[in-house]
Amino acid sequence: HGPVPGGDPGVGGWHLQGSLLGLQVLAYNRHTYETVAQRLVITIVPAPGDEPPYQGEFLVGNRNVEELLPAAAREIFLQATAGVWERDDLHVINVTSALDRGGRVPLPIEGRKEGVYVKVGSRGAFSPCLASAASPQSRFRCSLGQQPLASCYDTFAPHFTIRWCNLTLVRPTSLPAP
């Protein structure tokens, strides 16, 4: 694992919203070894209303990225997230290996995992529990090596170990008028 040139890996591979992606596809005939090259240019544009205004990014310490790519695993994660977010319109926006964010390769000891960042989005606001876990008071506790202030950790257990001090919440910068 490592950084992917030209973008961050997401659930479907590349995450290059609003960009051009140029690929050169090479093919060869196994019998004659003749090769052919074709250049493919893809424009990535966001779907209208696709990006949810409220986004939370969780660091799952006890998983490798390939374990959270299957739809069934993401659905279990969303069910656990719904318990702390108190929303039923959640969906996974991105799944990224912690190694691609500067994490270290775990020691080759059984049970060690690389860690995975999972970004989840919703149209609705964060629960008081999530807001508390990302509050300035919680950040201060994290800087002292303590757990943040929140009462919702156990909805992820035993499947997912969330590193709560790495929780990131993104709120909309401006809300539409009612």
Can you offer a commentary on this structure?
It is a single chain. With 178 residues, the chain is an alpha+beta fold. Helix content is 16%, strand content 27%. The chain is built from three helices and eight strands, in the order E-E-E-E-E-H-E-E-H-H-E. A hairpin with a 6-residue loop joins strand 3 and strand 4. The N and C termini lie far apart (45 Å).
Q: How would the global form be characterised?
A: globular
Strand percentage: 25-35%
Give the ordered list of helices and strands: EEEEEHEEHHE
Main β-sheet: number of strands, strand sense, barrel status? 4 strands, antiparallel
Care to count the β-strands?
8
End-to-end Cα distance, whole Å, is: 45 Å
Q: Helix content range of the residues, please? A: 10-25%
Q: Which value, in Å, is the CA radius of gyration?
A: 19 Å
SS content category: alpha+beta
**Oligomer designation:** single chain
At a glance:
By secondary structure, the protein is α+β, with helices and mostly antiparallel strands. Helix content is 16%, strand content 27%.
What keyword list fits this structure?
about 180 residues, alpha+beta, four-stranded antiparallel β-sheet, 3 helices, globular, disordered N terminus
Topology at a glance:
Elements: E1 8-10, E2 13-15, E3 20-28, E4 35-43, E5 54-60, H1 71-85, E6 91-97, E7 116-122, H2 128-133, H3 136-143, E8 168-170
Antiparallel strand pairs: 1-2, 3-4, 5-7, 5-8, 6-7
